[in-house]
Task: structure prediction
Amino acid sequence: MHLAIIMDGNGRWAKRFGWPRLAGHKQGAESVRRVIRHSPKVGVRALTLYAFSSDNWQRPAEEVSGLMRLLAHFIEKEVAECRANGVRLEFIGRRDRLPANLLPAMERAELETLGGKRLHVRIAIDYSSRDMLLTKMRPGMSREELTRCLGPDVDLLIRTGGEKRLSDFLLWECAYAEFHFTHVAWPDFEESDLEAAVAEFEGRERRFGRCTIKMNEPSSVSC
Ligand code: FPP
Result:
């Protein structure tokens, strides 16, 4: 299963305690750690996390630089454990506007975890799905070719923090995704929240535009 997560609510979480927004992002990094560790146990094979959107550059400079430092620190700290646990790390998004120390950390992490087969984690940094589509799409390209360039279709998309929007994330890949919106703020998101979202997903009937027809029961046709 390919799970994608919009990790929202960090700023409001910090505000609850009268802390700076960055404290929420730091706590959010702990949730990232928990979710990466727990994902393989609930059948997730690919996990895409929205860490920094191209529109996030418009946030206050202090928050942006703090987030960049946090990402670099996280990547450097996690590589060894990811490698030991069969987790492959990859980054999606633009790479030409990142701070000088972040890009080498990302490239090293990708190289060192390349052989990971248990879980494929993609972290979206300076990411805009619209820009990604414009960059990858070529005239005459088939659906399959574009999907190969972008990555697998999303099965389940979780957005924490109470908002219900896609915010320029995986627009093509979410064509038939199931959506799970929760009021839980990302720093509070725990293993049990992941389990509940996956259990709800597993109970849903995915029809991909087709009908469900139960034999001998014409009244049960639904589209
Ligand atoms: C949205 O919450 C969150 C972000 C813009 C950043 C997400 C980043 C992390 C969770 C940090 C660590 C990430 C990794 C991959 C280690 P918000 O700030 O918009 O919250 P608000 O809506 O409450 O203000």
About this structure: The radius of gyration is 18 Å. DSSP finds seven helices and six strands in the chain. Strands lie at 2-6, 46-53, 87-92, 119-127, 156-159, 178-181.
